[in-house]
Amino acid sequence: MQALYDHAGSAFLDTVLLNDTDFETLLQGNESPEVQLPVENDIEALKLLVPNIVLGDISTVSEGRIIHDANKVASWVKEYMKGKDVNKET
Known about the structure:
90 residues; alpha+beta
């Protein structure tokens, strides 16, 4: 987050969606071409940078690799945006 803020010149995110899918469960029965490890999120550090942190099951397995599930992420974004004033000027 800090790298994004540094690049943009200021903080601009109000919420971040993080994956909390259990990798062991996802990989059961799937052959993986390589070792896959989840990103270790520093929640306490993120809380200092972003007011709202949401954890969600947003991953899937594709061709033996764990990836973000675009449909799950899009569904979350649609629900999130229902509560936002998308016409508000920034």
